Amino acid sequence: MKPFKIITIIFAFTALVVTLLTVHPASAASRNIILATTTSTQDSGLLDVLIPLFEKQTGYFVKTIAVGSGQAMKMGEKGEADVLLVHSPDAEKKFMADGFGTTRRLVMHNDFIILGPASDPAKVRGSKAAEAMKRIAQAGSLFASRGDNSGTHAKEKGLWKAAGIDPEGQKWYQQTGLGMGQTLNVAAEKKAYVLTDRATYLSLKKGLGLEIIVEGDGKLLNIYHVIELNPVRSPKANVQGGKAFADFMVAKKTQEIIGRFGVDKFGAPLFFPDAGKKPESLGL
């Protein structure tokens, strides 16, 4: 083969590769996204329904890391995630103010509840949340805390503050450092009071032996947002993939699925869709 022809073939091949890379910029690596989210979305089974749909619709592949909201946001700050689904509003606002996120959108809500043994040793059944925490402390009744800087832990600390109680170091206050499902198992084993989101409780209720002691207080609202990361602060983040997931979570069809999730099994939805609502409508 003549040298000129060989050079021509090489140039043609190189041009083809460049064209393919230009037309199809989404390499195998960029089709993978890391979702940092809360244990409640995982333990409730919601993500088991939503993620396969997202992957089928978009061609992305999702690696889910279920941790507390605080840890999820730390991952976002370090560029170790591509998109966040979290439920710790005050921490989220700081995350956005510090420039780590570009877009934060309402996705859904449910509520927190306080569980305890049927005997209710602190006599808090039916009381307001802060009052219940105060009585639990005064009675010295065992309380199991996640103690993991999660959204649930942040809510719990807010309730202790509202009750004028500092539980740190108290014998009756036990921090597990575990996710919600595991903390519920600890509380069940030790017959302790515990704060949990309703969805995780309902999905794991069988065999726990714990009852809903306090519910319905406005202070117990549990709100989830999806956050896209700032590529300036997280240059390695898959911004396109993160946006695709965020768009999926607030899409009409996804919101309809969220609104139906849990109805067949529990007779009521585990989450209530909120995409497009004004934050003020939820008390934010």
Q: Tags for this entry?
A:
single chain; 284 residues; alpha/beta; 12 helices; globular
How would you portray this structure in words?
- The model is unreliable at 3-27 (pLDDT under 50).
- The chain has 284 residues and is α/β, with parallel strands linked by helices.
- 42% of the residues are buried.
- Helix 6 (129-139) packs across helix 7.
- The chain is 44% helix and 21% strand.
- The radius of gyration is 23 Å and the shape is globular.
How far apart the termini lie comes to: 73 Å
Number of helices: 12
Q: Structural class, please?
A: alpha/beta
Shape verdict:
globular
Largest sheet features: 10 strands, mixed
* Rg (C-alpha, Å): 23 Å
Q: What is the helix fraction of residues, given as a range? A: 40-55%
Query: How are helices and strands ordered from N to C?
Result: HEHHEHEHEHEHEHEHEEHHHE
Low-pLDDT stretches are 3-27
Would you report the number of β strands? 10
Strand % is: 15-25%
Mean pLDDT: 89
Short overview:
By secondary structure, the protein is an alpha/beta fold. It has helices at 3-23, 39-43, 46-58, 69-77, 89-97, 129-139, 151-163, 180-190, 198-204, 239-250, 252-260, 263-266; strands spanning 32-38, 61-67, 83-86, 101-116, 143-145, 173-175, 193-197, 211-214, 221-229, 272-273.
